[in-house]
Amino acid sequence: MGLLGFAGDVIEQIRLHYPALLRGYWLTISLTIISMTLATVVGTVTALLRASEYRPLRYLSSVYVETFRNTPLLIQLYFWFFALPRLPILETHLPVIGTINWLLSPMQAAILGLTAYTGAYTAEALRSGLRSVDPGQTEAARALGLTYMQTRRHVVVPQALRIAVPLLTSILSALFRNSALVSVIGVVELLAAADRIQQQNFQTFVLFTVAGVLYLSLTLPLAWASTRLERRVARAQ
Questions:
Q1: How far apart are CA 2 and CA 101, in angstroms?
Q2: pTM of the predicted model, to two decimals?
C-alpha cells in the first residue's frame, strides 16, 4: 500500500506541475544538445592540435585538456558566472564588438562552462580515435599528393570519428547528468524546476524522484545505444 501510495503521489505531482517540469526537461535537452554540438567542434580542433607536428600547438591544446579535465565542473561554472565579470572592461574600438564587460547571462555561462568541460573529454575521445587509425593510411595519402590538412580531413578524421562514436555517446550521457549543476548559477533546468516546486509544497522526495526518472529517460537510451555501438565497432575491427 505504501508503494502504491508513493506512486500515486508521484503521478499527482506530475499532473499538478507538469508545465514547469516539462519546461525544465526541454531546457535540459536543449542545453545538452547545444553544448555537445559546440564541444564536438572544440574537441575535434583540440584533438587535431594534440596530434599536430608542431610542439607549441600540442602544448597549448594539452594545457587546455588537462586544465578542464582536472578541475571540478562546479568550480568552472562559478568562474564563468561569478569571477569572469570581475575582469577589467576592454574597449576594443571595433564596430561590432565594442566594449567587452565579460558579464554573461546564466544561460551563456552554462553553455560556455559545459562546452569547455565536455570539449576536453571529447578531445581525448577523438584523439584516441586518431591514434587508432593505421599510420600507413596517412603515409599513403601523403604519397598520393594530399596535403597534411587534406589527409586529416578526408582520410584520418572520418575513421577516427567512427571509432570514437561509442565514447562520444557516453560523454553525451554524462553531459545530461552534468547539466544539473547549472542550477547553481540560476538556470532553471529540470533539477532546478523540481527544487523550486518542492520548496513550495515540501514534497521533496516525490519531486526529486520525478526528476530522477526524467533524467533516466534521457540517459538509459544513450547507455543502451553506447553498448550497441561498442559491439558494432568491435565487430568491424
A1: 55
A2: 0.84
